[in-house]
Design brief:
Blueprint lengths: L1 H12 L46 H6 L4 E6 L4 E11 L2 E5 L5 E5 L2 E6 L7 E3 L1 H8 L2 E11 L5 E20 L2 E13 L4 E9 L4 E9 L3 E6 L2
């Protein structure tokens, strides 16, 4: 218990000034706020690529002392690795906070908002994505909200196809986890991105590689 409290307090202390309020129609039930610019081009580098391996920022002992309370984020191709602590929740949405002032909000593991990146995802409706994952695949629509250059909320809709990419055993903090990997290919008139999700045999998303926005690229989220 002492380890759990000390770890969470250390991660959250530097984030005390971070305001978590709503912004935009899709974000009425979210717990994060910030600013971003409009999505205008395809994500740099095309398809998602796994970040480079890096030294862990958490230990297995720390995670086991507070199971479910942490994520490990790998951004910018491995140049930024951070432990994220659970900072708040609203229904099935959880906001995870980093000591660097970054935050990621997820809905059952699928990212629905970010704050603190060069370009942020302001809010997202991913209910169709969740349904397709439950059904082990399918075609659906996801909706993103971003800010224009004049700070107006703009909505973008994507057609997304999800499909299983087979079984894969992955390693997270020294533990080997059998999973099923899913690929999500999303397209609009202006933007294209490809996400990946690793779901364990209990139905928990233990790893994902998800697009934020142009200039921010992809982030890998591990749930140890």
């Amino acid at each position: 218990m002492i380890l759990r409290l000390n770890m969470r307090l250390a991660l959250l202390a530097t984030l005390g000034a971070l305001t978590l309020t709503a912004c935009g129609p899709l974000n009425e039930n979210s717990v994060a706020k910030g600013a971003a610019t409009a999505l205008q081009t395809r994500f740099a580098g095309g398809d998602a690529a796994a970040p480079a391996p890096v030294a862990p920022v958490l230990t297995r002992a720390q995670v086991d002392a507070a199971p479910g309370n942490f994520l490990v984020m790998n951004a910018y191709g491995g140049s930024l690795v951070a432990a994220l602590a659970q900072g708040g929740s609203n229904g099935d949405r959880i906001t995870w906070l980093s000591p660097q002032g970054l935050s990621v909000t997820t809905q059952n593991g699928v990212m629905v908002a970010t704050r603190g990146f060069p370009r942020d995802l302001m809010a997202a409706d991913v209910n169709g994505v969740m349904q397709a994952l439950i059904a082990s695949g399918g075609t659906t629509t996801r909706v993103h909200e971003v800010l224009s250059d004049t700070d107006q909320v703009q909505t973008q809709s994507f057609t997304c196809t999800l499909a299983s990419q087979g079984r894969e055993t992955i390693g997270i903090l020294g533990r080997q986890i059998p999973t099923e990997r899913f690929g999500e290919a999303c397209r609009s008139d202006m933007l294209a991105f490809d996400n990946k999700y690793w779901i364990d045999d209990t139905g928990v998303m233990v790893r994902s590689l998800q697009a934020i926005a142009p200039d921010s690229g992809y982030i890998q989220l591990d749930r140890p």
